[in-house]
Amino acid sequence: MLVAGRTALVLVDVQKGFLEREASGERRNNAGAVANMVRLLEAFRARGMTVIHIRHASTNPGSVLRPERPGFASMDHTREIGDEPVLIKSVNSGFIGTDLEERLRSAGIATVILVGATTNHCVETTARMAGNLGYDTRLVEDACYTFDRIGHGGRRESAEDIHAMTLSNLDGEFATIETTDSLLAAFENSAAA
Fold first, then answer.
1. CA distances from 75 to 37, 79, 109, 162 (A)
2. Is the peptide bond before 118 cis (omega within 30 degrees of 0)?
3. Which of the residues in the chain have pLDDT under 50?
4. CA distance 87 to 119
5. In angstroms, what CA-CA distances link 71 with 33, 34, 46, 56?
6. Residue 157 class from Cβ within 10 Å (0-12 exposed, 13-18 middle, 19+ buried)?
7. What is the pLDDT of residue 113?
8. Topology of the domain comprising 4-192
9. What is the Cα Rg of the chain in Å?
10. What are the beta bridge partners of residue 176?
11. pLDDT of residue 188
């Protein structure tokens, strides 16, 4: 069961730079991930629940996520509205260099729902820390994604395999793996209770 006043949606690095990577030919998984992020965002907003946006400000000179570049901006459909906070980080975890933990604790948040990009970098690192800090951490597998990459030893790794392994590494120890539909059903069950 999800308790409205004790659950927060945290959007990790949902930034235009990842659209630039796709446009340049990089292949990713979960084609519907952003649409699912929007579904969850709308559900949280409709219930007046806590929404927190995290944005990555890269210190790498060549990164599309540098603060002065267009890729730093939020994707249009997931842009913050009203007083939804935007926390800026320059490392993988949303908890490092931000006041995320303080905001969650002061709001009485017990359950953290994580979505965003990329699954095996900032989403995973934020999930691990949230789990270690004692939050009921839920990672939404169809509302996050990653890209193909060349892995250790020069082996080509598919986005699907990387995503699946990340979920396996987190599941049960650091987070509960959810789907958008399972969370939306949990909202309905909580409302009926």
1. 11, 6, 26, 23
2. yes
3. none
4. 19
5. 18, 16, 28, 10
6. middle
7. 98
8. Rossmann fold (3.40.50)
9. 16
10. 138
11. 80
Can you read off the two tokens belonging to residue 170?
A: 């987190």
Q: How far apart are CA 38 and CA 172, in angstroms?
A: 26
Distance CA 119, CA 139 (A): 9
The amino acid sitting at 127 is A
pTM: 0.96
The candidate with the shortest Cα–Cα distance to 93, out of 38, 176, 13, 6, is 13
> Is there a contact between 65 and 57 (Cβ–Cβ < 8 Å)?
yes
Q: Which two tokens stand for residue 16?
A: 């235009």
Cα distance between residue 89 and residue 27, in whole Å: 25
CB 11 within 8 A of CB 54: yes
Write out the two tokens for 60.
């790498």
The secondary structure of residue 175, as a DSSP letter, is B
Separation CA 77–CA 34 (nearest Å): 8
DSSP H helices in the chain:
16-23, 33-46, 100-106, 124-132, 159-170, 180-192
pLDDT at 1: 73
pLDDT for position 190: 74
Pairing, β 86-89 against β 111-117: unpaired
Alpha-carbon span 123 to 184, nearest angstrom: 20
